[in-house]
Amino acid sequence: MRRRNQSGNAEEIDQTAPSAPPLGHMDFVAGYDNVKFDNYGVGCIVLFPPPPAYGDVIRPPSVNSDMHPTVPAVTEEEARDALIKYVSTKWCYSSKAARELVFTNITPSTALHYQLETFTEGRQASWTYEPYNGLSVDSPANGPAPQPWDVVVNPPEMFKDGNYCTIVPHTASVKTCYSCSGRCAKNCVKCRRKGHIRCTNCRTGYHGRRGRKMQCIVCFGTNRISCYACNGAGLSPCEICCGMGKLKWYIKLEVTWKNNNAHHVIEKTTLPDHLIKNVSGRIVFEAEHLQVAPLVTFFEGGINTASQRLVKQHANQFAGQKILQQRHFVKMVPVSEVAYTYNNDSYTFWVYGDENEVYEDDYPLRRCCGLCTIS
Ligand SMILES: [Zn+2]
Ligand SMILES: [Zn+2]
Ligand SMILES: [Zn+2]
After folding, report:
1. Count of structural domains within the chain
2. Ion ligand 1: residue ranges with CB closer than 5 A
3. Ligand nearest to the CA of 187
């Protein structure tokens, strides 16, 4: 990689090469004039606000206000089986109490879980580069660059987080590497361009004392060996352009998809509400649109209020993002509060969800805190 000028002497390579190109270095691309570099620090990108949403007629969904479905309570046998299964996941619990407890009451109730999902897309662009590989590039000569939201990119899956990067068409150009000024190489940092380093097997090229000196078998008495970092050339390829001398610059468009969830649970016992979000039940209402309309006629007023609040919140929450789709549902989840006695003391546990999950905080036969679970 050592470069020689016409007189045969190695050229001096500029070691004060710029760490970043000047902004004026880049071409003007209509619609992307504020775009900066992405390789040099935070904030050097531009987030594009989405175009205004097109008119979507929102009609409140009709929900049968007389619909008051109930979910069945668990039987004593089901409750006991659920508790025994739960206890078997806790290494410090004994199943004796679960097998021998005496039921005193099972109180069924229904929890309601409302969930709103808003699937959004964000777009940001930045100037970036890669070593030029010699192939033709899609330059502005091929036509005007499409505007950020006109570049066609579809999410691979709706309501699932993801991201995708692509080159904005017609923005590529080839420029001389700003770091090595097209020289392809820089001075080797290991040998400082000398091409050799000191031999570490000897101090002077010889071992032993005067009269019995033996030549070093590694450097043959020179105390120098060829630099392993540059193979003795004194120069190493420029890391910015990978030794190509040129860079392909283009505007990179980064598309990010995010599924935003909001929940509201109505659960009337002392079972922690958040547990209801993670179990199955019966879906009694669901809808999916570009923008869903809040519920107004659901038989439980608290769900209507929550739906209106969360739909409004999501409508204003995602500045700079485009809402691609929304969906919401109401799920009815069975909850059974189970009272029992064991050794003349009273206890309670809950069985909830179609999976018959169990929650308790006072199981009688446990030998520690109860937080340890068999995984
Ligand atoms: Zn040596
Ligand atoms: Zn070297
Ligand atoms: Zn370079």
Report:
1. 2
2. 199, 201-202, 216, 218-219
3. 2
DSSP 367: S
Q: Which domain holds residue 284?
A: 76-118+256-359
User: Does residue 296 contact residue 248 with C-beta atoms inside 8 Å?
Assistant: no
Do residues 306 and 197 share a domain? no
Burial letters for 346-369: b for 16+ Cβ neighbours within 10 Å, e otherwise? Answer: ebbbbbbbeebbbbbeebbbbeee
Report how far residue 290's alpha carbon sits from residue 325's, in angstroms, rounded to the nearest whole number: 4
Q: Is residue 67 one of the residues assigned to a domain?
A: no
The token duo for 168 is 């904005």
Same domain, yes or no, for 174 and 243?
yes
- Give the pLDDT confidence of 32-89 residue by residue, as tens digits: 777 766 654 333 466 667 766 554 445 556 555 445 556 677 899 999 999 999 998 8
Considering 12-26, 51-65, 85-99, the range whose residues carry the highest mean pLDDT is 85-99
The answer to whether residue 368 is domain-embedded is no
Angle 38-41-46 (CA atoms, 0-180°, nearest 5)?
Answer: 45
Closest CA to 13 of 222, 181, 241: 181
Same domain, 215 and 265: no
Name residue 337's beta-bridge partners.
107, 350
Give the closest residue to 307 by CA, choosing from 327, 324, 325, 278.
327
Q: Are 214 and 139 part of one and the same domain?
A: yes
Ligand 3: centre distance to CA 17 (Å): 9
Counting ligands in written order, the one closest to the CA of 215 is 1
Ligand (nearest to CA of 241): 3
* Chain centre to alpha carbon of residue 164: 12
| 244 shares its domain with 181 | yes
Q: Are residues 46 and 193 in the same domain?
A: yes
pLDDT tens digit sequence for 233-257: 899 889 899 989 999 999 999 999 9
CB 92 within 8 A of CB 368: yes
Give 190 Cα–ligand 1 centroid separation in angstroms.
Answer: 18
Instruction: Assess whether 261 and 249 both reside in one domain.
Output: no
Ligand approaching nearest to the C-alpha of 21: 3
